[in-house]
Amino acid sequence: MRLATLLVAKTAVAQNDGTFTVIGGGLDRVQGSQLPIRVGDLALGCKLRFDEDEMGHEQTIEISLRDPESQHVVPLFGMAILVNQAAPQLSPDLRGQFHFVYSLRDVQFTSQGVHRFVVASQGEDLGSISIEVVVSEPAGESPMQTLSGALALGFGAFMRGDRDEAERVFAGLTERFPGSADAHNNLGFTLLARSDPAAALASFVTALRTGAPFTELVKANIATCHYLLGERAVAMDEFHSLLTEPLKADVAVLFGIGRRDIRLVQLRGTAQFLGLMALNEGRAALAENQLERVAIDRSLIQAGLLNRPAVAGETFLDLVEEFESDFATRETHLS
Question: Does 200 have pLDDT greater than 90?
Answer without folding.
Answer: yes
